[in-house]
Amino acid sequence: MVMGIPEDSMARQDSMVKELNFVTVRQSESGLRRQLLDIASGAVDAARPEIVLGSSFDAESDEFWGVCRRRGYVLVAVGKAAQAMSRTTVGTLGQPVDGLVVSHVPLSISGLETIVGGHPVPNAGSLRAGQALVSLLHRVPEATPVVVLISGGSSALCEVLKPGVDLEDLIEVNRVLLASGLAINKVNVIRQSLSMIKGGGLAQLIGNRPHRGLVISDVVGNNLAAIGSGLLSAPSWRVSDPWDVASAIQGSLSENVVHYLQTAEPFSATSTDVEIIADGGLVARRAHQLGVDLGFKAEVKTTTMEGTVEEAVQSCLAGAGPGLSIFCGETTVEFNDGGLGGRNQHGALLSALAFADPPPGRAGWLESTALFVGTDGRDGPTSAAGALVDCGTVDRVLRGGHNPRAAVRGHDSFHALQIAEDLIVAQPTGTNVGDLWMFARRS
């Protein structure tokens, strides 16, 4: 069964202490800027595993959870939200008989093996995590239930490579993919063709064991074959697709990588016992509710924002009206060597340039403020979560001796926004459901 997001997630969020707090590097904000930061904090808070996992372990409607409580279970958690998802699960179901937790930050959960993998580029820890996963499933008795917790970042954090492909190959392939600007479905064709656990490979390892998958989705459209590169879901690509995709990107690929790209066949195993417990739509709906509470005329414009950052910014600017306009999804950006930033920072700086010099008929942009944030608390390979910009951002960048247009061309938005003191910072949020963009003006 592939189930949707619990309807009472936002209601449960109202009853819990809010722990997230997005702030800019200047710390003190007011007016629209303060309101957007508060809305973003509350909206992303709604997707915390502590909240959204609450109704997933109902033993009355699903005997599987009753079996886990009575007889024990094995826990597998991979992704940026793995720590919070694991602790919530253990707190509800009790201590598992065995388990593995893989995330991007150091963690410790009593009784469970924990490994830090690489993100956004896989590393030796990612391969250690993959081997630990295989060892765990090999020693688990066939009758033991397996609980699989998946969240964004899984693709890089845990990997078992096909024979002959090594870590150096994997790092180079991911470097090329991250710089390519390819859509996630095409990126996953490459990743899955080189992996023993992606594209349904984990489902094949689990085999006939009773299991459930609980997923926090960072993928537009909630395609299970794309989230974490489809650990529990077989892909739909054909044998020729990986090489067709690879032929369109630039990069040095080893002989073994080329071999698999030309000959790889997709796995056929797919788990049907998967529930998506949170996604960008949940965050968008919560942002809408919080905006209305603050007196905004609020509207969720889309929860399926994708394409390049440049395309998305143009679409958002054209669609944002008076009040609060909310956009969720995940865009792509192609970076040049030497620049530093992320897709949210790049989008923020592009929008700031538009606010500072609006075209005819768009004078309202001069009164606009916009927030761009990664819901996991990180944007690209930087220390920032995103940025908060207005019509004064460009002037602040210029007064700091930086050229904002050159920063856009060089994909160096981080340093420009750092000068403007418009970067948003946050601790890791414990969840990951894509990006949240909001455009606001009171008139």
Features:
seven-stranded mixed sheet, 2 domains, Rossmann fold, 16% strand, single chain, glycerate kinase, domain 1, 14 strands, 443 residues, alpha/beta
Shape: globular
Q: In terms of per-residue confidence, which ranges show pLDDT below 50 for 5 or more consecutive residues?
A: 11-18
The CATH topology label of the largest domain is Rossmann fold
Q: Based on helices, strands and strand pairing, what is the structural class?
A: alpha/beta
Report, as a whole number of angstroms, the end-to-end distance: 46 Å
Beta-strand content: 15-25%
Number of strands: 14
Give Rg in angstroms: 22 Å
3D structure, described in words:
By secondary structure, the chain is of the alpha/beta class. It has 2 domains: 21-47 and 280-441, MOFRL domain (glycerate kinase, domain 1), CATH 3.40.1480; 50-278, 3-Layer(aba) Sandwich (Rossmann fold). Helices cover 38% and strands 16% of the residues. The protein contains 18 helices and 14 strands. The protein has helices spanning 9-14, 31-45, 49-52, 63-71, 82-93, 124-139, 154-157, 167-180, 184-193, 201-206, 241-246, 255-263, 280-293, 309-319, 343-356, 393-399, 404-409, 413-419; strands spanning 2-3, 23-24, 74-78, 98-103, 113-116, 146-150, 211-216, 274-278, 298-305, 323-329, 369-374, 386-390, 423-425, 435-441. Helix 5 links the parallel strand 3 (74-78) and strand 4 (98-103). Helix 2 packs across helix 13, helix 14 (309-319) packs across helix 15 and helix 15 (343-356) packs across helix 18.
